[in-house]
Amino acid sequence: MPERPRTSPGAAGRRGVASRPPWELDFARPNLFNNLRIRLSKQDRVQAVTRAVQELQDATDLIDELAARRLGINRTDLRCLSRLTARGPLTASELASAAGLTGGATTTAIDRLERTGLATRVRDTADRRRVLVHLSERGRRAVQEIWGPIATEAQAELLRFSAAELDLIETFLRRALDNQTRHAARLREPAEAP
């Protein structure tokens, strides 16, 4: 029978809790994790944040893919649904601009959203010539069912931060958004010939 490795009877062992080998780090203990983070260089921290942002984007992309599949629509339709959720009723041209789509692609997406019962076209009561695209009641329920729990958990997580930390998070996210918007505009331009 192989001999068991001996461990020194530390405080954890004395209380009847199994002690950990020194190579197993307990990341549930915040002090240990913070001590490790103090040793990271600024460049290491930048890389860690960059990786975390990429992982968040990948996870968001997966949620969007699964949501579109569940709703029976494609990713372009989902983008339109997202803009209607965030901004409320829009004309087709406003929706095209908000979603970064051509007029034809937007009309096709609106048609599909109507067929699936997620959106409706409604004539504007103030200007009968204008037609607005609204989320339908089914669309609102679907959005709440899919993204409601995610939003609730994110809010709870944000409440753990101080006001100053929230300001820093918002500043970073706004700058990241400006960066993405700028590069989206760059990528819309025709590519230069090699």
Automatic annotation (TrEMBL):
One of its GO terms (molecular function) is DNA binding. Residues 42-178 form the HTH marR-type domain. Transmembrane segments: none annotated. Pfam families: MarR (PF01047). InterPro entries: ArsR-like_HTH (IPR011991), HTH_MarR-typ (IPR000835), WH-like_DNA-bd_sf (IPR036388), WH_DNA-bd_sf (IPR036390). Keywords: DNA-binding, Transcription, Transcription regulation. This is MarR family transcriptional regulator.
